[in-house]
Design brief:
This protein has about 300 residues and is mainly alpha-helical. The chain has one domain. The protein has eleven helices and two strands. A hairpin with a 6-residue loop joins β1 and β2.
Length: about 300
């Protein structure tokens, strides 16, 4: 087991794919912050230009709101969403929360995990080395433990980008007010995302294909997860006579990621951790069983 851990750690360290994933994730999210900066700057310039020209009064249109200048009473047209966003007290916290509960972090985690888990099948390591071993469970655990390390590095890098990079746009608007709760929030999301890494490991062990693993992981997480869970919940309501608002989402990985938003109650953190740990145990056991019994 120790030798497998060292071998997988070296493979993770010297492989270019995890570091390329990290680089591209930082570049893409930096571009995302740049777009936010442009939107805010354009809005501020619009307010200033309208305030400087009393004759240029905009007509209010659907989906917009009038903002009055204190100096000359000039009406400025602005987006409702942008006004609400600028009025938020926890703008940076909510910005990070949106990325965590959506596909912002998860897509990059899926890409990293899919490449890392399927690489031994592509380079023949499974067939030529692990295939000769009678106990292959250690390889699954070594692989997952090193995937945890890669995911933690990815999480830390992306989180620091938002915590330190966003205030460069607006130091007052995007300043993280509570570091302790934010660390707790990101750490809990990390465990939930590691549960999804376990699902990627299971898919990779079943398919042994990078395209299939990427397709299933990305399409399910970004498009199909919530509709599928809604259908299952509706079927369970009708089959077992459950109340109309019952849902299976809190008992799933994607549901846990989706419900863990900034400002939720403490019991949600506990439930998300329990569900995530159960899924990690199940996916590791299932992956070990498949690799142990499957002809490599």
């Amino acid at each position: 087991m120790t030798n497998l851990l060292r071998m997988e750690f070296r493979r993770l360290r010297i492989s270019r794919y995890p570091w390329l994933t990290l680089l591209f994730s930082l570049l893409i999210l930096s571009a995302f912050l740049f777009l936010i900066n442009n939107s805010i700057q354009n809005y501020k310039e619009s307010v200033e230009s309208q305030a400087a020209s009393p004759a240029a009064i905009s007509e209010q249109s659907p989906g917009t709101e009038n903002v009055s200048s204190a100096d000359n009473g000039v009406t400025v047209e602005a987006s409702d969403d942008l006004i609400d966003f600028l009025a938020e007290e926890d703008a940076n916290e909510n910005l990070i929360s949106q990325q965590l509960t959506g596909a912002g972090y998860l897509i990059f985690v899926i890409v990293f995990a899919a490449i890392y888990f399927t690489e031994p099948y592509r380079n023949g390591f499974i067939k030529n080395f692990i295939g000769l071993s009678s106990n292959r469970t250690g390889f699954i655990f070594a692989k997952y433990i090193n995937a945890i390390l890669g995911t933690v590095i990815l999480f830390i890098a992306i989180s620091l980008l938002f915590i330190w990079g966003a205030p460069l746009i607006d130091s007052e608007l995007f300043q993280v007010q509570e570091i302790g709760p934010m660390v707790k929030f990101i750490s809990t999301h990390l465990v939930a995302h590691l549960a999804f890494v376990g699902l990627v490991l299971l898919v990779a062990t079943l398919t042994r294909s990078l395209p299939a693993t990427l397709l299933i992981g990305i399409v399910y997480s970004a498009l199909l997860a919530m509709p599928i869970l809604d259908l299952i919940s509706l079927g369970a309501q009708k089959a077992f006579g459950l109340v109309s608002d019952w849902t299976i989402k809190p008992y799933t990985v994607m549901g846990s990621i989706d419900r863990l938003k900034w400002g939720v109650e403490t019991n949600v953190y506990t439930e998300v951790l329990l569900v995530s740990l159960v899924y990690i145990a199940i996916t590791l056991a299932a992956s070990s069983l498949i690799l142990q019994r499957k002809d490599v």
